[in-house]
Amino acid sequence: MVKAIQIGLGHWGFSWTKDVIPKVPNIEMVGYVDSNPDATARVQAELGVPESLCFNDLETAAGAVKAELAICTLRTEAHYPVVRRCLELGLSVIVEKPFATTIAQAKELVALAKANGRVLMVSQNYRFQPGPIAAAELIGAQKFGPVNLVSIDFRRHAPSQGYRYWDMPDPLLADMSIHHFDLMRMVLSDNPRRVSCRTWNPPASPFGHHPIGVATLEFERGTIVSYRGSWMSSGPVTPWSGEWVMDCSEGEILWSSRDHFMGKSGPDRLSLRPLDGELTPVPLEPVQYADRVGTLAAIARVIETGTVPARFSSGEDNLHSLALVQATILSASRGGDWVEIAEVLQ
Fold first, then answer.
1. Cα→Cα distances 313→71, 95, 98, 182, 226, Å
2. Per DSSP, what are the bridge partners of residue 151?
């Protein structure tokens, strides 16, 4: 069993407390931390958490209980200072994306985790679904040969779907596209070399910043990805992971994942179309622990066994996803000029 404390019990943190943590059998909760007494009172009243396990600050919790893992479910700007302190206290950490605000902060956290012999994981929950796992395995096995072009579309109409973060900077690239960018790296098993991106805000949009964007991404092995994303689309809604068409030398791989819309949930889908052949759906193997449950189960196994599985989103690995977000934002600020990933990572 991995003894854990959770830090951050707000709206999203409470969702972790209620819907995620109880589903990982080898996690033993020994503490819950939030500076807001109403938040700790809520987990006590609604989830039956003993008052003795609730703390107002990290330092007190770390001194009172013996924990191995910190589950950091806080607002983004708090990630860096809290994760840093957790690592300094000798805890391994799982944290929501993005795990830091700047590349410099992210590098510091990665170095600190390595120096202290601790595991730092970013909860890239979209990785833990049947669709992208199957696509990654097919690409790795060269099912249809080398990849020529990847096309990805993400379409949602935020005003009619309960979206509420109208003033968030870079609501598409930083908050949503980071999932798609991370999946590109996972499925292709490759890192980006350079990007070109344009974003804009249409008339009558409630967004304070740009909710629509297009990007071209060139990966190190030469694969080109064409990406289109919109929070203001009036077209057919896509699954949260987007609609993917992977054009290879000998055929196409088409897939989608996390098909949740207006309270309804559908399965991941993947189809194959050989060159000049018919499109054929492929049955997908279910994953034991999906989505956020999958990320928490993954770090628990790493702590228990010391073995890092394939496609594990460590802080060090996730530097490249964070850099991709920042490179697209930088390119958009330059009117779509190409930005080298090396420029952002330096």
1. 15, 11, 12, 9, 23
2. 226, 245
Q: Is residue 345 a contact partner of residue 103, using CB atoms and an 8 Å limit? A: yes
Residue predicted with more confidence, 254 or 263: 254
Residue 265 binned pLDDT confidence (cut-offs 50, 70, 90) = confident
Within 10 angstroms of residue 108's Cβ, the number of other Cβ atoms is: 16
How many other C-beta atoms are found inside a 10 Å radius of the C-beta of residue 36? 12
The region that residue 34 occupies, defined by phi over 0 for left and psi between -120 and 50 for alpha, beta otherwise, is beta
- CA atoms of 118 and 95, how far apart (whole Å): 14
DSSP 96-129: PSSS-SSHHHHHHHHHHHHHTT--EEE--GGGSS
Rounded CA gap, 221 and 215, in Å?
18
- In this predicted model, what pLDDT tens digit does every residue of 89-148 receive, in sequence order? 999 999 999 999 999 999 999 999 999 999 999 999 999 999 999 999 999 999 999 999
309 exposure class (CB count in 10 Å sphere: 0-12, 13-18, 19+) = exposed
- 148 in Cβ contact with 247 (< 8 Å): yes
Closest CA to 287 of 132, 71, 176, 179: 132
Which domains does the chain show, CATH number per domain?
A: 2-122 (3.40.50.720), 126-286+322-340 (3.30.360.10)
Q: What is the pLDDT of residues 156-184, one digit of tens each?
A: 999 999 898 899 999 999 999 999 999 99
Question: Is the peptide bond between 159 and the residue preceding it cis, with omega within 30 degrees of 0?
Answer: no
